[in-house]
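Morning!

This is the sequence you dropped in the shared folder:
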Amino acid sequence: MSIQSLFEQATIDSHKGSVQSSSFDTESFNQAVMSTYARFSLALERGSGCRVWDTQNREYLDFVAGIATCTLGHAHPALVETVTRQIQKLHHVSNLYYIPEQGDLAKWLVQNSGADRAFFCNSGAEANEAAIKLARKYGHTVLELENPLILTAHASFHGRTLATITATGQPKYQKHFDPLMPGFHYVPYNDVEAVEAAISELDSGDNGVAAILLEPLQGEGGVRPGEIAYFQKLRQICDETGILLIFDEVQVGMGRSGKLWGYEHLGVEPDIFTSAKGLGGGIPIGAMLSKSFCDVFQPGEHASTFGGNPFACAVALTVCQTLEREKILQNVEARGEQLRAGLQAIATKYPQQIAEVRGWGLINGMELQADTQTTAADVVKAAMDEGLLLVPAGPKVVRFVPPLIVTEAEVDQALQVVEKVMAAM
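The structure's back. Tokens below.
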């Protein structure tokens, strides 16, 4: 049976026993769960491929994918098979022992990137925390800095832990969480002169820049791609000074950009990069990967109880192998071009509302005009009412991040909804 046939059967099976779905009790949910999310009034209970159904049995085309996470969509047969097999075999043991599944995943990632070694954790924030710790130790022990500093970009996003919100160059995520972690300095994105000036300014006495941490494409910052000349100049600066170049590939990596890693669009390799989100296709896993020369961690200096357990690694390896086996990156490129062309046509038709369309592969942003009263959240809500799930990337950018298996027909359907929404607005 083909993958598409398996999806169709899974959809049929998911409908069985779900027709009697009742309304979801949001009041009891809100009483028990902390209000850390401004949730839409929507409760999802099942999915198949690029489609999900709510508790009222209404169908939605999912162009959020858990925010660039469900690489293979929902209930992909390969993932279902791996999850079932691994949970019956061995799901968790301590990293005090060798874990074969962890080794297999690390080997695949190393063989398919510029990295030499991998450390596994549970999320993108944890992966970035690991990179920050590794950079600080490298700054102390190799660069001999008393106070190693890390440069990050304005409008960046690197996570929700105390260190990663400090690394994040957006004050709205830092409000009321001070005192923030010391050791970070912010520069404008895609501005090499600002980087050079910061390095010069911060290099005094025992202080100095140990690393530059950037996203190849800023996701939460508005889907803003990095410029090739900028990143190539940064690579040159780091090679000349010994500063580490770190890429946050949590959102843009694992094929979402049309290439396996976002840095492949820029013609450079980082010394360290991080991955999560799409790595596990929806199962929590994160990874920090580095070249061997900057792997200065020793036993006991960093760890993660759940990181790299057999269950998560088996699923992640299945995601990796499925991307490769089914040539999904080719689909990402084709569907990404189709989506951007369609969005650009809509932008041309409604220039007073849409300022720009930009992105790589299947991470794309539609920026609204600054002087329009319409917000990204307004567009997202209107599209949801029409059966299409989208997600904002800031107040004025609508983000399109469907599963990487999205079809031509599904992209066309999404574009029809977006045009209808923009026409109504």
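Headline: The chain has two domains: 3-69+328-424, 80-325.

More detail when I'm at my desk.
O.
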